[in-house]
Amino acid sequence: MRETVELSGVILFAQPIGEYDRRLVILTRERGKITAFARGARRQKSPLIAVTNPFVFAVFSLYEGRDAYTLVAADASEYFSDLAQKMPGVFYGYYFLELSDYYGREGIESGNIVNLLFVTFRALMREQLPPSMIRRIFEIRMLAENGDYAPPDEAGNMNEAAFQALRYASYCPVSRLYAFSLDEEAAGAFSREAVSAMKRTIDKSFKSLAVIDDLR
Predict the structure, then answer these.
(1) What is the pLDDT of residues 66-75, one digit of tens each?
(2) 201 shares a domain with 152
(3) Which of 79, 98, 118 is the endpoint of a domain?
(4) What is the pTM assigned to this prediction?
(5) Residue-wise DSSP of the chain
(6) Based on the structure, what is the number of domains in the chain?
């Protein structure tokens, strides 16, 4: 009998396959982004039905194949099921998953990004910051984690509070990422820097952002 491997992470994407199966994209701490098939996961009484959805954080038990994995069990630590009731927060959540999928690579440890997603979803649930600001903070940290952004060394003509916030968001412990707030002027300067950094780095359209734009 084949041995299973246990990988911890978060489901980025779930797609129906055939009549009862699901194809999953999972970002794992140990092996980066992987593809897994959950056989029978859409059957009404399947033990996998609740743990094969986006936003689920779990320890996944899998058989390793040549090109993909087969999911046999999952021990979920957080479902973030209430996020589906947050509008427009849930669509920002899908955007964060899409951006993580864009950066995810197979075979590269991704514990930092898994942690980033977890604290970001928690921030969306708490609603202490507007989702639009959470988005900009997430973008700056995601770019920084992947070596695509470094904050300026000096404020120059930039708003001082925004400058300090950019440095904080780039380097702080991820558990404290959303523990600050900015006034309107500083938030605007922070957001403009995030928009500029994203445009310089990423040439891709994200479906979830189109939905967010339609809701405005």
Answers:
(1) 889 999 999 9
(2) yes
(3) 79
(4) 0.96
(5) -PPPEEEEEEEEEEEEETTTEEEEEEEETTTEEEEEEETTTTSTT-TTSSSSSTT-EEEEEEEE-SS-EEEEEEEEEE--GGGGGSTTHHHHHHHHHHHHHHH--BTS--HHHHHHHHHHHHHHHHTSS-HHHHHHHHHHHHHHHTTS----SS-TTS-HHHHHHHHHHHHS-GGGTT-----HHHHHHHHHHHHHHHHHH-----HHHHHHHHH-
(6) 2
Are both 70 and 89 inside the same structural domain?
Answer: no
The CATH number for 69's domain is 2.40.50.140
The range of the structural domain enclosing residue 191 comes to 84-215
Q: Which residues contact 170 (CB under 8 A, 6 or more apart)?
A: 140, 141, 144, 149, 150, 151
Please give the pLDDT value at position 66: 87
Q: Same domain for 105 and 64?
A: no
Percent of the chain with pLDDT over 90: 94
pLDDT confidence of 215, banded at 50, 70, 90?
Answer: confident
| 66 and 135 belong to one structural domain | no
Per-residue pLDDT reduced to its tens digit, 122-181 = 999 999 999 999 999 999 999 999 999 999 999 999 999 999 999 999 999 999 999 999
The enclosing domain of 135 has a CATH number of: 1.20.1440.120
